[in-house]
Amino acid sequence: DTEVTQTPKHLVMGMTNKKSLKCEQHMGHRAMYWYKQKAKKPPELMFVYSYEKLSINESVPSRFSPECPNSSLLNLHLHALQPEDSALYLCASSQGGPNTEAFFGQGTRLTVV
Amino acid sequence: KQEVTQIPAALSVPEGENLVLNCSFTDSAIYNLQWFRQDPGKGLTSLLLIQSSQREQTSGRLNASLDKSSGRSTLYIAASQPGDSATYLCAPSGNTPLVFGKGTRLSVIA
Q1: How far from A90 is each of A36, B8, B16, CA to CA, in Å?
Q2: Alpha carbon of A76 to those of A33, A103, A113, B48: distances in Å?
Q3: Three-class SS of chain A
Q4: Are A109 and B41 in contact (CB < 8 Å)?
Q5: Cβ contacts (< 8 Å) between B52 and chain A: which residues?
Q6: Which of A9, A36, A71, B29 is most buried, judged by most C-beta within 10 A?
Q7: Does B43 contact A90 at a Cβ distance shorter than 8 Å?
Q8: Mind telling me how many Å the CA of B99 is from chain A's nearest CA?
Q9: pLDDT for B12-24, tens place per residue?
Q10: Which residues in chain A land under pLDDT 70?
């Protein structure tokens, strides 16, 4: 099983709303990632968690707040977003360590109105 | 900072052709390189992972090569099919994991 599950698949939120994206994997992977992908652009790294600790934050605005409650679950909390934050948000996981294969979920399509 | 370039940006071929997608990267200090496929509006599907110590990796009709010292990788697709139509992304991993190129958009015409 190489499945990474993201919910919801689609989300529309207002600029004053608070919402959360969820990502789950049951492969025993110890590294989890959030990427943001704008239309016709490549995915861009936002955060990396390694062994449930935040190891990389690519200078992401504080209106995006990641959380890793356990080794299987990764959340992205959203607050006071801007329309330009509309994008496909992708979650990935890997076994951990630099030589391991990463597996991606199907993404959450976020629209900020 | 790692920069990844993929050539061509788009490719349209008739069914049955063999084709080569190119990927180049500026920082050769990588641990591995992954090739992904992405269908419109969907997530990424991992196709192949090549470790930095390897030169080639094969899966079915796909063959990927890596020349780490020159910062190049190629993805070879044999006997292309309409179902291969998608965007193909390469992503080397070094100190920053999975830095993506802009991809090659492939259309295979029946």
Answers
A1: 6, 25, 32
A2: 10, 18, 19, 28
A3: CCCEEEECCEEEECCCCEEEEEEEECCCCCEEEEEEECCCCCCEEEEEEECCEEEEECCCCCCEEEEEEECCEEEEEEECCCHHHCEEEEEEEECCCCCCCEEECCCEEEEEC
A4: yes
A5: 99
A6: A36
A7: yes
A8: 7
A9: 999 999 999 999 9
A10: 1-2, 98
The pLDDT value recorded for residue B95 is 84
Q: What angle do CA A77, A82, A86 make, to 5 degrees?
A: 75
B59 lies within 8 A of chain A by CB: no
**Cα–Cα distance measured from residue A4 to residue A110, given in angstroms and rounded to the nearest whole number:** 18
Average pLDDT, chain A: 94
Between β-strands A10-13 and A108-112, what pairing exists: parallel, antiparallel or unpaired? parallel
Tell me the shortest Cα–Cα distance from A98 to chain B, in angstroms: 6
